Amino acid sequence: MIVDAHAHVWKADPKYPNPAVTTMSPASDVPLDLLRQYMDEHGVGRTVLVQPMFPGEDNSLVADAARAEPGRYAAVAVVDPRKPDLLEYWVRERGCRGLRLRPKFAGEADLFEHDPLWERAARLGIVISVLANLSHVPAIARRAERFPGVPLIVDHLAHPDVAAGVGSPDFQALLALARLPNVSVKPTGFYYYSKTGYPYDDCGDFFRAVYDRFGPDRLIWGSDFPHVLLKTDYGRSLNLFESRYPWLAKGEREKILGGNAERLYFTLPRPT
């Protein structure tokens, strides 16, 4: 089964203060039904719905979608790190399976290492995904070491500097996270840092490097829907791993495109 581990849906919010920070405008709806059409067209069986930035901490849309079809959707919530009780609510009462922390955003980096939230996440048995830059990798390492039972996923390879190359100290620090068995990475969002455009040939060495260090069991694909629609294409994003990396074995590709995310978000026991 193919699992899209990184997609967003939302209702329009014309009052969002800075639409320029997103690829798709928050002033327009991105409905679940549109995502479903792309899933059906491309044979994607399950999707992880990640709370987007502009609804704040009201995770109702993604939580309700996952509760209505738990076999098809899982929800990843956003909460104020200073309010771990909110995480308890969204997980136990509303069924969310993950938490997203965003040290990449101004004002959120200082809260990333707030212990009570991580302690609550550990007790709840959920997955934490991290939207970060490479400068945040040391903090990610500290969290992963302190909470080895919490599965942790680094989104979009922490936005590497392609011009600096795979050998840059910052990217080498990301690769060093592979020593921590609870850390996985998403080799996704290449259009955020590629200098060449699709098919992102300048990102090939970065993908090979994380494959060599993390292995196929800790690489996780996600479409980045709906942003991917304006940047490249949903199908192109999905087919990239077969068309550009033919050295991947079929079983390895199946893990990256589904099996790993299915294990983390749909197979692990739900909190009781």
How would you explain this protein's 3D organization?
This protein has helices spanning 32-42, 60-68, 84-93, 115-124, 137-146, 169-176, 204-214, 227-231, 234-243, 250-267; strands at 2-7, 44-50, 73-77, 98-101, 127-130, 152-154, 183-185. α3 runs parallel beside α4. It contains 10 helices and 7 strands. The protein is globular and about 45 Å long. A 7-stranded parallel beta sheet has the order 1-2-3-4-5-6-7, with helices on both faces. By secondary structure, the chain is of the alpha/beta class. β6 (152-154), α6 and β7 (183-185) form a beta-alpha-beta unit. 38% of the residues lie in helices and 12% in strands.
Rg from Cα: 17 Å
The major β-sheet equals: 7 strands, parallel
Largest sheet, spatial ordering of strands: 1-2-3-4-5-6-7
Query: How far is the first residue's CA from the last residue's CA?
Result: 27 Å
Helix content: 25-40%
Number of helices: 10
Order of SSEs:
EHEHEHEHEHEHEHHHH
- Which class of secondary structure composition applies to the elements? alpha/beta
Please report which band the strand proportion falls in: under 5%, 5-15%, 15-25%, 25-35%, 35-45% or over 45%: 5-15%
Taking pLDDT < 50 over at least 5 consecutive residues as the criterion, the unreliable ranges are none
State the total count of DSSP E strands. 7
Give the rounded overall mean pLDDT. 94
Could you say which overall geometry the principal axes of the C-alpha atoms support? globular
